[in-house]
Structures are given as C-alpha cells and as structure tokens.
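Protocol check, entry for the methods section draft. Step 1: assemble the input record (protein sequence plus ligand SMILES). Step 2: submit for complex structure prediction. Step 3: store the structure tokens unaltered in the notebook. Ligand used here: magnesium ion. Step 1 record:
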Amino acid sequence: MALARTRAVALFGVDGQIVDVEAAITNGVPGLHLVGLPDTALSEARDRVRAAIYNSGETWPNRHVTVSLFPASLPKRGSGFDLAISVAVLGASDALPLDACAGLVMIGELGLDGRIRPVTGVLPAVLAAAESGAETVIVANGNADEASLVPDVKVVGVSSLRALLALLRDLPPPPEPDNDAADARGPSPYIDGLATRSRTRRGDMDLADVRGQAEGRKILEISAAGGHHVCFTGPPGCGKTMLAERLPTLLPDLDHSAALEVTAIHSVAGTLPAGQPLITRPPFQAPHHTASRAALVGGGSGRLIQPGAASLAHRGILFLDESPEFTGGVLDALRQPLEGGEVVIARSGATARFPARFTMLLAANPCPCAAPKARDCGCAASVRRRYLARMSGPLLDRVDLKSRLKEVSRAELRYDLELAEPSEVVAQRVLTARDRTRKRLADTPWRTNAEIPGRELRRRFAPPHRALARLDRSLADGRLSARGLDRVVRVAWTLADLKDKETPATDEITEALGLWEGRT
Ligand SMILES: Nc1ncnc2c1ncn2[C@@H]1O[C@H](COP(=O)(O)OP(=O)(O)O)[C@@H](O)[C@H]1O
Ligand SMILES: [Mg+2]
Ligand SMILES: [Zn+2]
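Step 3, stored output:
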C-alpha cells in the first residue's frame, strides 16, 4: 500500500488549524473516497481534483484511493484543500517523490483545467501554518502577496498544478498559460442582505466640508483620540451623516499588528480591495438599517460562516445611521462584540471567532416624522421618547459622547468657511493625543482610553480625588451609574490627552460628564 502525506489548513473564523492530508492507494473498487467530515464543497473537490490531475497530463490511479483529512473531528469547509488532496493522491501513486511534499502546507482551489485559484482567508491560514512551524506554504499566485504578509515563512505562489508538480519534481517550470485568469480573485462568498459599504479611503471628504456644528466636530475629535462611541441626534439635514462619514479622516493609520488583524477578517470575507494585500486604514462600515442580524454580526450556514459588519469594522468604525430604524432586536446582537471585542459563532460543532473591536457611531432623527424644522414636528413627547428608546438598552448605555445637534443656520452655512478646520489639522491633534495615551498604556494590552477596563481606571489610571469629587453628587442622586462613571473617566483622560495634561482635573471631568449626559 502506497501512502503519501501533505498538509492544509482548516479555518474557523480567523483561527486556523493544520490538517494532515493523507492518501492511500489500495486494491479494491476504483474510485476516490474522502474521509474526515468533508462538507459539500470538499466533496466537490473529488471532481475538481480528478479533472485537474487528468488535464495536467498526469495519470489518475485507476485503483481505490482513500484520502483522509485529519483530525477527522474537525469540520472542514471550502475549496482550499484541493491542492493538498491532488498532491497527496499523486504522491501515493508514485508520481511524485514522497519526501517532496511531506513538509509543505498547501492552500488553493483547483480549476478543472488544473489552474490554481485563489481562496479567501489565506492570511489567517498562512499565519496558522507559520505558528505550527511550517517552513514553506504553497498558495495560488493570486494569493501570494497576501500570504507574504506573514513573517518567517517561505511563500511560493504557483499558477497551475502542472507548475507545482514541476517544482516538486525539481524540473524547470512549464510555460505559463497565456490567459492569466488564474490570478483573478475567486468568487467571493456573500451573505444575502449584507448591505455594507466598505471604505478604506475617504476619497476627497474633509471635515472642513461641514459648516457650523462646532460641537459635533469636537466630538468627532474626542472620539478619534480615545476610541469612544458616539451618538448624534438632530433634525434631518443638519449634517449627522456628513459628520459621521468624516470620522475616518481623523484616524491615524493602523499599526502593523492591527493591520494584520483587519486584513485577516477581510480576507475571510473576501472583501480585500483588489491589489491591496494589506489594509492599513481603519475600516468604515455603514450597514443599512434593513440589515439582518447575520449581516450585522456574522453568521451563515455550516459551510460559510461569514464575518458581519461589526467584524469588518474591527479597529475602525461601525456607523449605524438612522439607528432607531433598525429592525427589532437586530441591534441587540451588538451586545456581545461591544462587551468582549469579538463575535463567536457556533455552527455544527465548529466555533468561528471574529474580532470585533470598533468605535460605534449612532445617528438618529429626534422623532419618526423627521421634520426638518423643530416647529413643524407634531410628535408627542411620548412618541419622541419611544423613538429614541429603540436605540437604548445595550447601545445607548455604552455611548460616551452623546450630542444633540441643531440645524445649521443660513449664516453658518455661508460664513463658517474659515472657522471649519480641515481634517488634516484635527488629525494631527488626534495623533499627538494618541501618542500621549500610548506612552501611558505602553506596558498594557490597550491602545486607546476607551479600552481601559474599569478596575484599572480605579487603580493605575485613577484621576486625582479632587477631580472626581464632582461626580459624587451625580452618583448620589442616581444620575450616574458605576458603568457611567467609568465611561466619564475614560473620556476625561482623552480630554486631558488632547490638552496635553498629565491627568484629568475637575474641568475635564465636568466636560466629560456633560458629554456623557448629552446635555449639549
Ligand atoms: N453642517 C453642514 N454643513 C454643510 N452642509 C451641510 C451641513 N448639514 C447638512 N448639509 C448638507 O445637507 C445634506 C444632508 O446632510 P446630512 O448629513 O445627510 O444630514 P442628516 O444626516 O443630519 O440628515 C448634506 O449632503 C449637505 O449637502
Ligand atoms: Mg442622515
Ligand atoms: Zn416629529
């Protein structure tokens, strides 16, 4: 009995695990048997692998071929196992030297003609391979740039099974097929109703486009500096959406490890921008209010567990425009990521984990009638209250910066030009403040003030007692909860960082309390 072994990677969310792929050829009814919980896509691999081997000028062993994927208990999905399966089969039939493929990890889908097609999730898969000690990973040419982001592992991009076999046999590479369709990205899996816009660049948007709204602009600056969640309410047409869309222009580039995290998620989702293997700008996700729960936090069937907008917004911004209009209960699903910074989806024995640490930005009209002028609104106070209450519960509770924007006056629209600072100027202040924060948090896992856990705010990062005295009254009369207290203190730190002060004082605490209560 001939036996050949190589390796591939199974993905769960953004976590990968090495899978041993073994092929054995025995006497018996000719055919290919896959064992080890293959899902539908994997079963289809049977036909692809056979056709690809045949169309690469190789002989299909006309005997009983068993391919086993180990550990068998691990659910495996997707088409990325094709390459490893075909190489194992050829190894077992003595068409390849056995030792040539044993140490390799192979990730790629095969076309019927033997082309190697790119797959989604290559970055997290190669990370897992590297962590397991693999030295060389074989991927499709079209995935090579993305795979090469992983340090300490040799990445070899190949365009066809024929080319890979030549490589494994130490032969010169065959001529490339003229058609370079092999380098095109594979079809990207898509969730129905995923109404998100992924923006990594802000085009020519600038904060200076927004006239008036000094308070709104200031709030964006504080949010950008400290990573605090924001809620804008205000009459239709006052610039809520406009402001929100400009928050990314104030954020610094992602550092390298954050860039890798974000890229891994978009790699799995198949939303990496073409020709840009590494995402270096904070993502901006704006799911429409008709979005489903799965579109918002991820989901799907066993075969395709997909990250949702909350994860695609990881290390960036999740903008929920017209938030009261989101359908019942969908926003409640954000509780898990807001609490733990990740989404965990369990399906048919497998658990997928997607990081989801984002800055949440809510925007809402004050009432359902959406009258542009306050005097035209006929909504009863109870109706208005109920409308905004749709956002409450898990969300509004966690918003540090609440702001009621007013309509912009005509004079402001006309004359405020020179007052409106451009994004570049504000982004520079944000950067300076973030540097301050980073130095203070240098030996901690947190990067922004919003991430500091409550207990540390009371120990290592406690503001002076004098400054906190201001909050005692609010705590005593029940206007401020313990959670609210922590939120106020975090924002006060950001205000201090923006003003280049050592610690927050009474002024910053008072200002932060006002922002938390949303008195403006
Ligand atoms: N503060 C503002 N400065 C400049 N233009 C504004 C401002 N507010 C509103 N506009 C104009 O009105 C349009 C609608 O604004 P938008 O941000 O969508 O309002 P909202 O989201 O509050 O309903 C914008 O595209 C812009 O042309
Ligand atoms: Mg709007
Ligand atoms: Zn109204």
